C-alpha cells in the first residue's frame, strides 16, 4: 500500500494533506446543534499513538472502542474513521460501520475486520477508500510525519437508510440530515524515514 511508494513519489506527496476541514465531523457538525458522545478506547488515549498491532505493521486489526452518552431519540449509530493527513485531496477512509445499536456500548478489537480477520457478525460495514468493507489498517508513507486517524461516531435520528455496502458520500448525506450527536477520538501513527 502507501508504505511501498517509491521515494520520489513519496517525496512529491509530502506537501499534500487532505486536512481536517474535509472530515465527516467538520462537514456534518452544526455548532450548538449536536450533543456530545464520549468516545474512547482501552487501547490508546485521545491524540496518542495507535499501538502497532492495529496498523499495517502489525496484525492490522481494528482497535476496540467504547462510547457513552448516546442521547434519547437515537435510532442507530454510525462510525467513520478517516486519515486527515493522507497525501490525497480528501481524507482517506479507513472504516465505515452503519446501523450500530442505538445505546452506550462499543466494538471489540477486530470487530471491523482487518488484514486477516472477518467483520464481527451483526456489524454492517461500508466501503473504505480501497472499496473494501473492512478496517483498512493505517500505513502512512515512511518519513511523511504523524498521521491523525479520526474515529468519528454519530447518533442518528429516525429516517436514515443505508444500502448494504454504503460508501462515504452516501453516509455523509445521511449524517447531514439525521445526525443528532457526535463524538471523536484521534489516534496517531507514523513511520520513520526509511522504515
What order do the SSEs take from the amino end to the carboxyl end, as H and E? HHEEEEEEEEEHE
Helices, by number, come to 3
Give the total of beta strands: 10
- SSE class: alpha+beta
The N- to C-terminal Cα distance equals 14 Å
Chain-averaged pLDDT: 89
Q: How would you sum up the major sheet?
A: 7 strands, mixed
Determine the fraction of residues in helical runs and give it as a percent range: 10-25%
| Rg result | 16 Å
Proportion of β residues? Answer: 25-35%
Overall geometric form: globular
Low-confidence segments, given as residue ranges, are: none
Chain-wise SSE layout:
Layout: H1 7-13, H2 24-28, E1 35-36, E2 38-40, E3 48-49, E4 65-68, E5 76-83, E6 92-100, E7 105-107, E8 124-125, E9 147-156, H3 168-178, E10 179-189
Parallel strand pairs: 1-10, 3-10
Antiparallel strand pairs: 2-4, 4-7, 5-6, 5-9, 6-8, 9-10
Keywords:
195 residues; 7-stranded mixed β-sheet; single chain; 3 helices
How would you sum up this structure, described in words?
This protein is of the alpha+beta class and 195 residues long. It contains three helices and ten strands, in the order ααβββββββββαβ. The relative contact order is 0.25.
Short description:
The chain is α+β, with helices and mostly antiparallel strands and 195 residues long. The protein is built from three helices and ten strands.
Amino acid at each position: 500500500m502507501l508504505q511501498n511508494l517509491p521515494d520520489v513519489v513519496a517525496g512529491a506527496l509530502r506537501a499534500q494533506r487532505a486536512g481536517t476541514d474535509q472530515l465527516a465531523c467538520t462537514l456534518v457538525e452544526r455548532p450548538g446543534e449536536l450533543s456530545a458522545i464520549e468516545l474512547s478506547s482501552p487501547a490508546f488515549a485521545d491524540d496518542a499513538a495507535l499501538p502497532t498491532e492495529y496498523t499495517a505493521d502489525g496484525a492490522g486489526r481494528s482497535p476496540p472502542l467504547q462510547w457513552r452518552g448516546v442521547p434519547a431519540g437515537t435510532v442507530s449509530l454510525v462510525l467513520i474513521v478517516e486519515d486527515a493527513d493522507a497525501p490525497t485531496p480528501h481524507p482517506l477512509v479507513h472504516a465505515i460501520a452503519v446501523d450500530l445499536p442505538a445505546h452506550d456500548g462499543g466494538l471489540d478489537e477486530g470487530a471491523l475486520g482487518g488484514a486477516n480477520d472477518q467483520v464481527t457478525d451483526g456489524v454492517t460495514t461500508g466501503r473504505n477508500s480501497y472499496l473494501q468493507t473492512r478496517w483498512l489498517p493505517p500505513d502512512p508513507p515512511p518519513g511523511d510525519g504523524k498521521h491523525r486517524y479520526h474515529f468519528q461516531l454519530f447518533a442518528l435520528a429516525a429516517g436514515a437508510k443505508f444500502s448494504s455496502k454504503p460508501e462515504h458520500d452516501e453516509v455523509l448525506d445521511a449524517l447531514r440530515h439525521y445526525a443528532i450527536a457526535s463524538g471523536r477520538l484521534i489516534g496517531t501513527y507514523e513511520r520513520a524515514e526509511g522504515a
